[in-house]
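Hey, can you fold this one?
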Amino acid sequence: MTDLLERRAVRPAAERMVALQLRARGLGDDRVLAAMSALPRHMFIPVPVRSQAYEDHAVPIGFDVTISQPFVVGWMSEALALDGSERVLEVGTGSGYQAAVLGMLARDVFTVERIPVLARRARWTLRALGVDNVHVFVGDGSLGLPEHGPYDAIVVAAAAPSMPGSLYEEVRVRGRLVVPVGGPAGQRLEVIVRSPEGPAVSKSVPCRFVPLVGAEGF
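Sure. Predicted structure:
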């Protein structure tokens, strides 16, 4: 009961976050905005820094990992252009917040995390919130989860030195791969569409992410 009351109490904080940090900056997908207004973002953040849950920056969650800035989560979710029928892969579960957002936008979400402790925490939080269409795995996310593909969309929450070929191969034709590409000197958040002719970058914006660690990362 206490948790339920806490979740209701913070709904205005999530709605303000969406209005000021997402909608005011040009994000307009109503499904994305509704999902992020409804989710209790603070539940995905460690207690010592939970007061920063709805602020306009990334928040550390341990193991040199952060929960991404709300605008970045919204931008990446909107870039996938989901309608609710899709099978989605997320690379870099972290706290599970992005996966939870995607779980409200897609039919099934598969998410892979390389750090077992973070994967366990994410599973617990998702289960506590009743998000039952998100499936958390531990492994090398740079290689994806081919056994559960192909996917209609893939989102990567860490920067790769170049487009990970394995992930691209796991996207259906006409599907989208959203991935930060680059190193310490500069990164671009790219929306890559898989076409019969090969990868086509439909959008690219400056960004800053932690490095993708793995066989096709750093």
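The chain has one domain: 2-207. Let me know if you want another pass with a different chain boundary.
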